[in-house]
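U., I forgot to send this yesterday:
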Amino acid sequence: MARVSKATMIGELLQIDADVAPILLNIGMHCLGCPSSQMETIEEAAMVHGIDADDLVEEINTFLDSKA
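Result:
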Protein backbone atom coordinates (compact mmCIF):
# COMPACT_ATOMS: atom_id res chain seq x y z
CA MET A 1 0.00 0.00 0.00
CA ALA A 2 1.33 3.40 -0.98
CA ARG A 3 2.11 5.96 1.72
CA VAL A 4 3.29 9.52 1.33
CA SER A 5 5.12 11.97 3.58
CA LYS A 6 5.61 15.72 3.66
CA ALA A 7 8.76 15.17 1.58
CA THR A 8 6.86 13.47 -1.28
CA MET A 9 6.95 15.54 -4.46
CA ILE A 10 3.61 16.56 -5.97
CA GLY A 11 4.65 14.96 -9.28
CA GLU A 12 5.48 11.71 -7.48
CA LEU A 13 2.20 11.85 -5.57
CA LEU A 14 0.21 12.14 -8.78
CA GLN A 15 2.14 9.19 -10.23
CA ILE A 16 1.31 7.12 -7.14
CA ASP A 17 -2.39 7.82 -7.65
CA ALA A 18 -3.79 10.50 -9.95
CA ASP A 19 -7.11 10.18 -8.09
CA VAL A 20 -5.53 12.32 -5.36
CA ALA A 21 -5.87 15.37 -7.64
CA PRO A 22 -9.40 16.32 -6.43
CA ILE A 23 -8.15 16.48 -2.83
CA LEU A 24 -5.48 18.96 -3.89
CA LEU A 25 -7.83 20.93 -6.11
CA ASN A 26 -10.43 21.19 -3.34
CA ILE A 27 -7.95 22.95 -1.05
CA GLY A 28 -6.92 25.45 -3.71
CA MET A 29 -3.95 23.73 -5.37
CA HIS A 30 -5.03 24.51 -8.93
CA CYS A 31 -1.51 24.46 -10.37
CA LEU A 32 -1.10 20.68 -10.55
CA GLY A 33 -0.16 20.69 -14.25
CA CYS A 34 2.40 23.45 -13.80
CA PRO A 35 5.97 22.13 -14.19
CA SER A 36 7.19 23.93 -11.07
CA SER A 37 4.48 22.38 -8.90
CA GLN A 38 5.64 18.91 -9.94
CA MET A 39 8.93 19.51 -8.12
CA GLU A 40 7.38 20.89 -4.93
CA THR A 41 7.02 18.70 -1.89
CA ILE A 42 3.65 18.26 -0.24
CA GLU A 43 5.01 20.33 2.63
CA GLU A 44 6.09 23.20 0.34
CA ALA A 45 2.78 23.18 -1.52
CA ALA A 46 0.82 23.14 1.73
CA MET A 47 2.83 26.06 3.09
CA VAL A 48 2.22 28.17 -0.03
CA HIS A 49 -1.52 27.47 0.21
CA GLY A 50 -1.81 28.00 3.97
CA ILE A 51 -2.65 24.36 4.68
CA ASP A 52 -1.26 22.27 7.55
CA ALA A 53 1.08 19.77 5.88
CA ASP A 54 0.56 17.07 8.52
CA ASP A 55 -3.22 17.24 8.09
CA LEU A 56 -2.88 17.08 4.30
CA VAL A 57 -0.54 14.07 4.44
CA GLU A 58 -2.96 12.33 6.81
CA GLU A 59 -5.90 13.02 4.48
CA ILE A 60 -3.98 11.73 1.44
CA ASN A 61 -2.79 8.59 3.25
CA THR A 62 -6.32 7.90 4.50
CA PHE A 63 -7.55 8.21 0.92
CA LEU A 64 -4.80 5.90 -0.37
CA ASP A 65 -5.50 3.37 2.41
CA SER A 66 -9.18 3.31 1.50
CA LYS A 67 -8.31 2.15 -2.01
CA ALA A 68 -6.19 -0.79 -0.84
